[in-house]
Amino acid sequence: MTSEAAAEERLALSSDAMRLTLAGAWHLAELPTLAALLARLQPRAPLTVDGTSLTTLDSAAALALLRALAAVGLQHDAISWQGFSPPHQRVLDDVLKRMAALAEAPPPARSRWLADIGERTSIIYGQGVDHLSFLGETLAAFLEIVRAPRRLRPRELTAQLEQACLNAIPVVILVTLLIGVVFAYLLGLQAEQYGANIFVVDGVGIGMSREFAPIIVAVIIAGRSGAAFTAQLGSMRLTEEIDAIRTLGLSPMQVLVVPRVLALVIALPLLAFVGLVAGLVGAALVADAMLGIPPVAFAERLHGALDIKHVWAGIGKTPVFALAIAVIGCRMGMHVGRDTRAVGLATTSTVVQSIVSVILLDAAFAILFQELGI
Amino acid sequence: MNAHAPVIEVDGIVTRFGANAVHDGVSFSVARGTLAALIGGSGTGKSVLLREIIGLHHPTEGTVRVLGTDMWRASSADVAAVRRRFGMTFQDGALFSSLTVAQNVAVPLAEHTKIAPEMREHLVRLRLAQAGLPADAAHKMPSELSGGMRKRAALARALALEPEILFLDEPTSGLDPTTARAFDALVRSLVDNLGITVFLVTHDLDTLLTVVDRLIVLASGKVLADGPPREIARLDDAWIRSYFAIRTMVGGSPDRSDGS
To answer: How far is A63 from chain B (nearest CA, A)?
Structure first.
């Protein structure tokens, strides 16, 4: 349909370049062809444009025509329009009227990379400060609840506990069991070479209880509950539910944040313990199958080698991890921008921030325990 | 091409949600170049009907033809081709929140045409101007716009491909009266100047009485009345009387409440 010959018939310029004849369908779908044809012509003033044989003229095509004429220095007043049907003339007038307003708006200034780095650094710093102040607000709200325990919402707390703790048990068991299997297997490969099979139990026991179980479980929960907190509170903010809570004279901190933080602080140590047991079971399976250590011998050795202080050191860290995850998740949700995209960005950011902060806190604990000789 | 051929034909639409029948044989057609409005009480299925017309919700029975294509029996390629010939704006704009206003308007152009980027930019600016947006709105994100501006940006995106029909869902809801009237005038000028057919769902009496050519009233699953707004306002039906009664209380009879 848009063959060259057919296209030529759409547009013809008289030999003196002062009469332009348009014909056929001038609409958006034909714009690339029409624009190419228009670019080839060099009409002169005073120009007459004849639209008698046009069948269609839409505003996109009219814009292309007017821009092509303006490009060769022909403004509206140098052109006489002839034979346009009333609907086509209206389209043309509509576009003409707006041509003046089409001046390009300057795009917003592009920032340079150095400024970018500075900006991002100050955002990260600002967020750290905000998280700390939010932690303070949460503690203040919590203390108020301690003073007036009737303000605690047991329903919200148990609902959150179910979500964050009970429903997380299968995935925690699955992951830590597999970590136990892999850990014991890799340790066993080395220990076998020296005939030191039984020491695998010591290694797995101490490793799982001090580091692996708490860290792995905290990372799972950061991805699961931290992200959920941000998404839930973020969409509640979008739908103005949080504002509604405020106008009803309730405190969103007490109604929404404290139950979530409390639930996670209770849930994470319990889950870490579940994870520790599952990891040890995984290790015992490998020890039995690969290293010739029957489960009873495994348990006996574990009893002797694993001092209870290691378990306490591992589990003891987890409420702090939980506090960091819950505070970051809730704050990111409560302060999310008021559009859907912001909720997505905030959720991503929550997961990254909470995993990084769990690792940083763990490093701090390692130094602390070292100094305390635990 | 017959200038007065119907561009929207709805025939015997029945919609049931479980045992609950929302539509029980809805039929009407809309001619090219008219500004038609669909009204009805809450729960009469106006939005559902709109979604059925544009092919987002499958009616239980009946046919819908848009620009001659049966939206529920034609091949998906044919339906996609028709979709490029009409535009739709949703209640809250439904702008893509990760793109600027200009990028939002450019999406259909980049997706469905081979227009050179430079020309596309100018076309985007024309669309923004046609929707009544200032030039500096182009680089804003949807979250930075007021409700009225968001509706205009959505209109600019719906206009991008030079549609033959525009479907507007509650175009003036949530706007202040001044902005709403300006939006009405804008929609009217699209019909008059660009020859676009507009089909809108609204509750705004001012829109109905000042710019709309034709009113379709939906009640108890059927078309209760169909005609020019002024004639409909005179009909002797309890629901229609109460619908227009508020207007009569404020501005005298509907005949004298001419907004021009």
So the answer is: 7
Which pLDDT score, from 0 to 100, does residue A332 have? 94
* Residue B66 domain-assigned (yes or no): no
Q: How confident is the model at residue B246 (pLDDT cuts 50, 70, 90)?
A: low
pLDDT at A223 > cutoff 90: yes
Domain interval for residue B140 = 96-162
| Prediction pTM value | 0.69
Hey, is the C-beta of B85 within 8 angstroms of any chain A C-beta?
no
ipTM rounded to 2 decimals: 0.74
Q: Does the structural domain A4-102 have CATH classification 3.40.190.10?
A: no
Domains of chain B: total: 1
- DSSP assignment of B96-109, as one string? -TTS-HHHHHHHHH
Q: How far is CA B39 from the centre of its chain?
A: 12
Amino acid residing at A102? L
pLDDT at A149 over 90: no
Contact criterion met (CB < 8 Å) for B97 and A339: yes
Per-residue pLDDT, B44? 84
Taking only residues 177 to 196 of chain B, the set having a beta carbon closer than 8 angstroms to any beta carbon of chain A reads 189, 192-195
**A91, B194: Cβ pair inside 8 Å?**
yes
Q: What local confidence, expressed as pLDDT, does residue B121 receive? A: 87
Assess if residue B146 is contained within a domain: yes
Which of B126, B141, B162 minimises the CB distance to A98?
B126
